[in-house]
Amino acid sequence: MYLQDQGFSYLQIATLMATIQLTKIIAPSVWGWLGDRSGQRVRLVRFGALTGSLFFAGVFLEPGFYGLLLVMLAFTFFWNAVLPLYEVITLRTLGAQKEKYGRVRLWGSVGFIGAVAGVGGILELVPVQFLPWLLLPVFAGIAVSSFLVPSERGEVRERAPSGSLRRIITNPTVVTFFLMNFLLQVSHGPYYTFFSIHLEQHGYGKLPIGLLWSLGVLAEIALFLVMHRFTRRFSVRQIALGALGLSMIRWVLIAELTDEIVVLVFAQLLHAASYGALHAISVQYIQGFFGKHHHGQGQALYSGLTFGAGGALGAWMSGFLVEGFNTSAAFLGGAAALGLAIVITWRGLKPPPGDH
Length: 356
Description:
Elements: H1 2-5, H2 10-38, H3 41-56, H4 64-79, H5 82-94, H6 101-122, H7 131-146, H8 164-169, H9 172-201, H10 206-233, H11 236-256, H12 261-269, H13 271-290, H14 295-324, H15 327-348
Helix pairs in contact: 2-4, 2-9, 2-14, 3-4, 3-5, 3-7, 5-14, 6-10, 9-13, 9-14, 9-15, 10-12, 10-13, 11-12, 11-13, 11-15, 13-14, 14-15
Protein name: Nucleoside:H+ symporter:Major facilitator superfamily
Membrane topology: Multi-pass membrane protein
Domain Major facilitator superfamily associated: 1-332
């Protein structure tokens, strides 16, 4: 909505939002490799948080479409250092208690709820053009909090077996895993790019829009709290197929029944499946297949090939669908991507090592 207020077209909005995802294709691999080589992931997180925040300040120059494109490329290249490295730091800290990952990760979801609900309420009182000013304290808080995490001692890195990374990424099950998540993120392109605009077109105000975003993340938190029970009872394949099916239903409901608030609330609760369940099993999947030698690069590939390439393609294609048809068509396109993901997952996904 901020970009729409700045006068950008739907295709320009989609291109700018795709840029955020595009840098995830390269940046996490660079930062993951540096983290694996140096063992100084906490220091890299601090550097990424500080430098990314400085580049974000370019938004205040109101540089126009191409200037903003460059600002977002620079900002997100460093910003994308933070989350993949933190995932590895978290899992290494948990050690054998990896099933507790969800209880740690849920705090990111709590922060997201505070942001979208709080900002949604504030934007009912002030124009949306003030959004970048509301983000400044958040960036400052992230930079400061990164210095509260204890620094890692330099690891003595064992030499990885020759050619082992290539063997991992060419494993048919790993290829299926990445294809599944790539298509999942393609389907999320319309959601992250046009959900707020879609709701606004159907008469929802900024506060209800913020609360609906929050509701989705509340469902995600609830899922993270009980995810360990699902992983004990069901296989990775069963959880993945169930979550993909529910996600497809979610996009159809948002496209066709937006005016029905009860249906929309139910669709937002399905965020527990479309993000929470699939992300939780994916993080453990990467740990199982990539092991200690390539964990950072595995996490970076997951971020780059799925959230990066998949998210960018989904955002960009949704721009064409909205420009040519409407926002509902973009969500139906997301549902079609998930139909393909279900077929691929059904045929090729097998459990990671250690999963029974």
